[in-house]
Amino acid sequence: MQAAQVFNQDDCKGGNRSLQLSWRAAPAGTRSFAITVFDEDAPGRGWWNWAVAGIPATVDSVPENASFSGYLKKVGAVEAHNDFDIDGYGGPCPPLGKPHRYIITVYALSTADHLRLAQGRPALMFDHEIGTATLGSARMVVNYGR
Predict the structure, then answer these.
(1) What distance, in Å, lies between the first and last C-alpha atoms of the chain?
(2) In which domain, by residue range, is 84 found?
């Protein structure tokens, strides 16, 4: 993670720009894509940094800052309300000490229309709905600490 992706609030000083991501070789039948960023090392149930669904199947990448630049809305995607209590992307901001693992996942979905999702719904709801329509996924784990 670069400083541009780190959350920008309180003692975290970053650009809070969502990641540039690209993917290829989606499974047959893919109708849309979704992306999540989840901090599995946060206390309790973990921490949702980002969840977005409804990315058209014709799209194979999202640019940096797609969350706040208007790109995702332009392509018809919707973003969850994350655990920072904002809609859209919230970059890493772990407590001082041991780095946290951020799981970044791109999902190929079997539907474009039937998820019960709307802008601002909780990320946990996005995770559930994405899970009901996943054909395949690719993930990477990024470590970030302060």
Answers:
(1) 11
(2) 3-144
